[in-house]
Amino acid sequence: MTMVSDAPAGTVTSLFTPGTLDAARQAPDSLPANPATAPASRKSEDAPLFPEPPPVLAALDAAIQRDIAARQGRGHLGMSQIGKADTRTLWLQFRGCLPEEHSPRTERIFRLGDAIEQELVRYLRQIPGVELHTTDPDGRQFRFAYFGGHFGGSMDGAIHGIPEAPKTWHVFEAKSVAAKRFNDLEKKGVQAWSPEYFAQLQCYMGASGMERALFVAYCKDDSRIYAERVRFEPMTWDGLLAKAQRLLEADTPPASSYRDPSWYEAKWMPPITAAVYWGERLPPVAHCRNCRFSTPDLRSEDLGAHWLCSMAGEEIPAAVVPKGCQWHQWIHALCPLPVVEADATRTVYALPDGRQIANGADDYRSQELAEASKNNFMVLDPIGDAIHQTFDARLVHASEPLTVGDGDDEVPF
């Protein structure tokens, strides 16, 4: 017989150790108390049985977070995004302004979805007569690109031979969803359930020439499967192309479609994303896509999603686009500060206290202003500004503002 004692977590000890056996022989009617049921008499018994979180889980989350940080965001406006109603979000994402803020747990959910979708492919290929391709003849994922490569998407696959229409090729798209959303999908159908997914299907049909799509969803909670055939709508496809072109050509972000930050679709934004979205701070990273001198080349024949620099008068090398250069200046509409004046070398902004600062290679560089915007530019007080000018110093890092949590959250100071 074994019971858990106060020994370190993971250690199992016997109730009848040599010492307790001797005591039992001397007093048979008086066995030692069961530590699992005896009242706590020592402070150590109040400690948790197992330490939490185990160090291996913290290390796992850290590894996943590093992987997220190392990945470059999407460099084009996606066909999987274009159905979103809020065009401000789409423009900010295309211009690389909204950070990818998601937790290791969310990342694991995404990767689990990928694995489930691969299982759906395997199941469908088991149906007699079904032909399902997930790559083109060269072994690459099906990809479509328009407007110089700045608008595009990657299709899950093409399927032929399904029982409902065995002679018709279909665009194939698979998704994994939680039970609540799955139930909603069954009631509404894909168009009403998710305009974004419906638009994605229309884009892939329009780009591929196929006139039908097969949308399959897998319920992650109980393994139910939903399937729906969708018809191609040429006018919808034309409208989505026109929407994409308007966004790509716009040099300032559109107005928000949300009433205010408490709007149900907006309130789930992570804190930094929300602050950038509402114009309360600058994007965390300065690069060519959010520079006022750069524009997307929508006429490039190689569909390489190239960018042009009006200051340099030439195409920006692909390796430079995600990094930017010292002459970067923020697109004026992204900065929370009002513009006083601007020319090719600098943009002058007015600080809340009435003083002025300039964004330019010989003034405050864009990444410095991004750091300063974390705290409403308070770090650029007269002393800090004097140090910057006198010693040609650079602002490398500013702390995020402290916030007090709600309820039982621990106060961070």
3D shape = globular
Radius of gyration: 29 Å
- Order of strands, main sheet, comes to 4-7-8-9-10
Mean pLDDT: 86
Number of helical segments with 4 or more residues: 11
| Spatial gap, N to C terminus | 49 Å
Which regions contain 5 or more consecutive residues with pLDDT less than 50? Answer: 1-17, 27-32, 403-413
Strand residues, percent: 15-25%
The count of strands amounts to: 16
Protein structure class: alpha+beta
* Largest β sheet strand count, sense and barrel closure: 5 strands, mixed
SSE order: EEHHEHHEEEEEHHHEEHHEEEEEEHH
Helix content: 25-40%
Describe this structure in words.
With 413 residues, the chain is α+β, with helices and mostly antiparallel strands. 30% of the residues lie in helices and 16% in strands. It has helices spanning 18-26, 55-70, 87-94, 104-125, 179-188, 190-193, 195-208, 234-249, 271-277, 366-372, 382-391, and strands at residues 2-3, 13-14, 77-78, 131-133, 142-146, 151-155, 157-160, 170-177, 212-219, 225-231, 294-296, 307-309, 314-315, 339-342, 347-350, 356-359. It has a five-stranded mixed β-sheet with strand order 4-7-8-9-10. It has a three-stranded mixed β-sheet with strand order 3-6-5. Strands 11-12-13 form a three-stranded antiparallel β-sheet, with no helix packed on it. The longest helix has 22 residues, at 104-125. The chain is globular, with a radius of gyration of 29 Å. Residues 1-17, 27-32 and 403-413 have low confidence and may be disordered.
